[in-house]
Amino acid sequence: MTDRIRIGVLNDAADLRADEDDDSPASHDIAFWLDREIAALRRRGCALPEVEIVHAYALGLPGGTGAAVEDACHRLIDDGVA
User: Fold this and answer.
1) 57 by DSSP, 3-state: which?
2) CA distances (Å), 65 to each of 6, 18, 61, in order?
3) Which of 49, 68, 79, 82 has the most CB within a 10 Å radius?
């Protein structure tokens, strides 16, 4: 088993501002859910490698461009994430 896995998360949302006082699950991106599920698996005794969540951001359509999303995706690939 590998010692660490890096998971890439691409956020193409138009509004990256988050309400820091809002701790509801809906206010978080998918990394919140990934962390929660990884913790649940570990509590059940699953031996998992260290997990690192790597973020990339881009302004996608309709306010941004497809090229911006593609560039962000390439940054994740170049960063060696799964």
Assistant:
1) strand
2) 26, 22, 5
3) 68
Bridge partner residues of 57 (DSSP): 11
pTM given for the model:
0.72
Q: Where are the alpha helices (DSSP H) in 1-82?
A: 30-43, 66-78
41 token code pair: 């698996």
Q: Residue with structure tokens 């690939």?
A: 77
Look at the block and give the residue holding tokens 């309400």: 19
Average pLDDT value for the chain: 85
The per-residue pLDDT for range 50-70, each reduced to its tens digit, is 999 999 999 999 889 999 999
- Is the Cα dihedral 11, 12, 13, 16 positive or negative? positive
